[in-house]
Each structure stands twice: as structure tokens, then as C-alpha cells.
Amino acid sequence: MQFGYKCYMEVNLKNLRKNLIELKKFHNIIPVLKSNGYGLGLKEVARTILNDTDYFAVGNIEEAFVLKEMNIKKGILVLNPILPREYKEAIQNDFIFPVESKSALREILRIGRNKKINIHVEVDTGMGRSGIPYYEAINFIRGVLNLKEINFFGVYTHLASPEKDPGFTKEQIAKFLNVLSNFDVSKIPLIHAASSAGFISYNQLLRKPFNFSRIGILLFGVIPQTQNKVLNLKINEVVKVKANILRVQEIKKGTSIGYGTLFKAQRKMKIATISTGYGWGLLRKLTNKGYVIIKGKKAKILGSVCMDLIVADVTNIQGVKPGDEVVIIGKQGNEKIDFNEIADLAETIPYEILINFGNALNKKYIFEEEAK
User: What is the CATH number of the domain that holds 152?
Assistant: First the structure.
């Protein structure tokens, strides 16, 4: 007997590569593949764009090892702080990792001894979670540059709110530029501040002294919603999320649906039970307000989002039957549901929506000509 996935993620790798090529028209790009390639699959994504980049960025040393074990010869940047017990492996495997303090630097030098150590330095200009405080960064970087044991790969900062707070973002950029003004930036291989939102919002981040941008969610076809969009990009859809109809039935007025009886029919209706739920990455916040697409028409979610099931209103959709495809994210006919739309309904951000689905679902990797 053959079983198919009742709810799955469709990943168009050809479109993913097209997106990277489009982004490279504007700036040098470091693809950010943290959190298992934003849930799409670190190995599959890296393999797809291997010949289109000189660097990969990941969130932690475990992900760096995944790339190392693929025999990838590109530069591997670890963006987040690593633990002292991980220093030895990071040094031995030539990962480019951040140093967070003078004491950490001393320990790294002790462990590294006669081996050149690849590091980069994050400058905290306002994110407040990692990096050297900007007012200490100049002296710290000077000290690092004087160490013959160190291969200094670069300096970077992380913008806290490029989507919503232009004033604070400009303050961060100014602080970072002040730090950089104390050095010969032509000798620093990697200088970057722009993430996806910064990339489309601040042209300044695409000019010298910035020589790279760190791009994650844009690669995967999701355009951040910003107040200050200055770039118009041709970004292709990469991800679809699909499920199936399991049952179709008619219900009477007064019938309740789902846990907590949060929906009661005000009229006779036709409903469809669908093979998805919060166990498959669909947020419970979409209870009674999310939509899916069936036969090219939007159908509202009725009642609570359950672990494995949801119910949708198909009263005005003809010919619905068990086995029919349901689009949760993506296009079908003239209708479309994207990550930003769902994020707005769920009062969250598209990053969380993408990661939730990515972590929960099996993947079908396709190329454009195979997509429907």
C-alpha cells in the first residue's frame, strides 16, 4: 500500500536559486541558513545554491558541522555566540565564529595555540542580545587585529527593527559606521549589517563600506513588510503548504464545530474536514479567522484549529470531495495566501509561520516545471 503525505511543504528549489541570482544584482550576498535553512532543509538548500555563493551563514556550530560533513569548501560563518566547550571544534574545523569578550578571546588563543583561528566580530549597536558593545568595539577590534594567531574575517551588526523603526535603525547604522571609521575597511573581508528587511529598506547598507548583505527569508520567497521599502525585487514563490480534504458533510443550523464549541452554525452549511492543524505547524491563533484555498476559492476556517484537523466552510464551492487538494500557503487559481497574510491574522511575523511549517512538515522538493 502506498501512503502520501496528507499535509506537506512543497519547496521549489529552482525558484530559490533564481531569488539568490536576483538579489546578487544589488549586492554581494551571504545566504543565511539558520534554523535548518528556515525550516526548508539545510542540506537541500545549501546544495541548490552551492555554486552561487562564497559563504554560508548558520546559527550554531551544529549547523556548521552539517555543512562541513557535506564536504562544502565555502566559508562557513556561525552568527550566534558559541559555547566555550565548542571552541576547540570550531577552531579545528576552520569555522568563522564570533568572539564575545576579551576573556573568550584569551581562552580561544589558549586552545588554538599554533593554529590560525578564524573569527569575526559582532558589534552590538542596539540589538542587546549578543556582540561587543559599540562603545567597546574599537579597542577590542584593534586588539584582535594585532594578533598574528587570528584570521580576522569581518565585522557585522544586527538591526533591531528595520521594518518599523527607521529612526532607531539609522542610529544603529551611524554607531556601526563610527566604529568602522577607525579602521582601513579595505582590509576587512566581510562588513555587513543588512538582513532581508534592511536590504529592501536602506540603500545605504548596499554601498561601501558594506560589502555583503545577510539574506535569509527573501531567499525563500517571503518579502518582509516594511515602512521604508526602497527596492523592488522580482522574488519568486518558493514555498507552498498543501493538505487534503478528508470528509465533506452538510450540517444543520446550530451545529457546533471543534474544541470549545467556538463556532456554531447560524444556517445550514457544507463543511470540509482537512488534514492539517497545529501539529502540522498551523497556528491556533487562526481559529475562526484563517483561510485556505479549495478549487481556486478561499474557504474560512470554522472553529478551533485542532492538532491534526481543521474544518472549513465550503458551502459556496462546488464539487468538493475527499482527496481534493487544499492550499494553506501559496496560489491556486486566482487566489493566493502568503506568509504575511497569515502572520497578520495570527498577530505574529512571517518568520514564525515559515519555521513552524518547516519544522513540522515533510518536504517535496521540486523544480519549476514540476510545480502546479
Answer: 3.20.20.10
